[in-house]
Amino acid sequence: MTAETSAPVTHRRVLNIALPIVISNATVPILGAVDTGVVGQLGTAAPIGAVGIGAIILSSLYWMFGFLRMGTVGLTSQALGAGNRSEVAAMLTRALLIGAMAGVALITLQLPLFWAAFQVSPASPEVEALGTDYMRIRIWSAPAAIAMYGITGWLIAQERTRAVLVIQVWMNGLNILLDLWFVLGLGWSVSGVALATFLAEWTGLALALWFCRSTFRAPDWRNWVQVFDRIRLRHMVVVNTDILLRSLLLEAVFVSFLFVGAGFGDVTLAANQVLLQFLMITAFALDGFAFAAEALVGQAMGARQQLALRRSAMLTSVWGLICVVGLAIVFALCGNWVIDLMTKSAEVQQVARDYLIYMVLAPPLGLAAWMLDGIFIGATKTRDMRNMMAISFVIYTITAVALVPVYGNHGLWIALLVSFVARGVTMALRYPALERSAI
């Protein structure tokens, strides 16, 4: 066992895992702003729309494989906690193989996928043409982008979040520099933005593999008998399938939220979109502590150390609580200013302010759901996650059906917050069984 797996769970250890993730997440919105800003300098609307819709379509396609990060964290951290170094190496190989196969599949199916995406979300002929050009370039880095889910999870499981931060800063920093060069310097327009991302993703993968170099020096990563062990592969498939189903249900909540909100008019829809950015900020901040829970709980589960598991869950949640209380205070004091920064429409500003109270309540009400997600992922109790998400989805639907006709958009926001609470409560009810399984 390594020093990390045998070390006590302390506040410092939690922060060493969490803070690099929080900083890493903070760089993500900057890249999106630069992508939009550089094409905005071209003077027409079509390139902005093309980059926006192309990025959303590709992100949605890649997101389907987001389970690879979560599943890899849980399985790798448990192998690490059990002192099974050969399985830790095999998990890296499996993640890379899945990323490669998934990426090749998307490249092969790109034409029907792009066509289907524009059928669901049609745009003007010019935007669709430019968006297709953008995606045809970026899709060739799909193997790298999806493999990065797995490598990121593998590194987090070993508490190597500083490496994750370096990779993220490198990718986003290079992407921004290439954006400026290709678009503003060389005049390559939308294709330049796509090529910048393509190069950033492949060089990011190369850097990530360099951080894994010590594993590649030993033969375990290419022990094909272990890599393709049927029992372990079957378990990995079950874990990842449960996570995928849970994520689809969670996505259904937010998609339905947007669709129902659209029925209240353009101004309310825009206000809701602005307010959802507060939830994005909350998620980015809490991710660090949820990821710390994934790694530490997983290691404790693998080592069959119930007390370490409990302490990991408690300390990460304490820091999560500190985080959400701070966010709630900031949103209450500065929320109006943030809304004014995000939109210059007086109508949208006023409507968003009417619903700001829900953003103040969202961080503390959602804390249990976010943290227990990390705890259950680390313990690979993904069946419970899936089932509790299904129950929460039903509760959300019933609440929305009951409240939206009476209270309108207020009822919709209440239903969303109720879904957060339902996820937290239902998973909390399953937590004692999770602890018992660590014995």
In short:
The protein is mostly helical and 439 residues long. It has 20 helices and no strands.
Write structural notes for this entry:
- The chain is mainly α and 439 residues long.
- The chain has 2 domains: 1-228, no CATH class; 241-439, no CATH class.
- Helix content is 87%, strand content 0%.
- It contains 20 helices and no strands.
- It has helices at residues 3-6, 11-26, 28-40, 45-63, 67-81, 85-108, 110-120, 125-138, 142-157, 161-185, 189-211, 213-217, 224-227, 230-262, 266-303, 306-342, 346-354, 356-378, 382-407, 409-436.
- The longest helix is centred in the middle third of the chain and has 38 residues, at 266-303.
Low-confidence runs (pLDDT<50, min 5 residues)? 1-5
Shape: globular
Provide the domain count. 2
**What is the total tally of β strands?**
0
Name the average pLDDT: 91
The helicity comes to over 70%
Q: Write the H/E string, N to C.
A: HHHHHHHHHHHHHHHHHHHH
Percent of residues in β-strands: under 5%
Rg from Cα: 22 Å
Q: Ends: how far apart?
A: 18 Å
